[in-house]
Prior knowledge:
Elements: H1 3-31, H2 38-62, H3 69-92, H4 107-130, H5 134-163, H6 167-184
Function: Probably functions as a manganese efflux pump.
Subcellular location: Cell membrane
Protein name: Putative manganese efflux pump MntP
Amino acid sequence: MGSIPFVGEMITLSLMALALGMDAFSVxxxxxxxxxxxxxxxxxxxxxxxxxxxxxxxGMVLGRFLSNQLGSFTTMGGGALLIILGVQMxxxxxxxDDEPALSPIGFxxxxxxxSVSLDSFSVGLSLGMxxxxxxxxxxxxxxxxxxxxxxxxxxxxxxxxxxGTYSExxxxxxxxxxxxxxxxx
Length: 185
C-alpha cells in the first residue's frame, strides 16, 4: 500500500522531467544546426543536465520564501535569452566565416544551459512548497534534460548536413520561435 504514493510520485515527476527536457530538446535541435563535434555535444548535454539539477534545486530551496510572481519572471527571462541566442545565430548565418556569433563554448554554453533551465527553477519553486523527494526529482530532471539535449543536438546535426548554409538560419529561427512561445505562450 505504501508504494502506491511513491509510484504515483515517480510517474508525475518523470512526466515533469520529460516536459522540462523537451525545452532542451527543442533548443538543442536548433543549436545542433551549428557544426558541432560529438565531444562538444556530450559536454553541452552534460552541462544542460547539470543546470537542470542546479536550477530546480535552487527553486526548491527558495520555494518557501519567494512569491509566485517570480515563476513568470523566470519564464520571461528564459524566453528573452533564447531570442537573443536565436537572433545572434540568425545574424551569423549571413556572415561569411564559419564561426557562429555565440557558440556553445564557455560563456555561450552557460547562456544556452541557463536559458533552457530557467523554467525548471520556477518548477522547483512550486515543488519546494509541496515537499517532493528532492534527490529523485533532481536526478530525473537532470538525466531527462541531458538525454533530450543530446537527441536534439544530434538530430540538428543531421538536419544541418542536409540544409547546408541555411541550417544556422533555421536554427536561429527555431530558438527565436521557442523564446517567443515561452514569453507569450
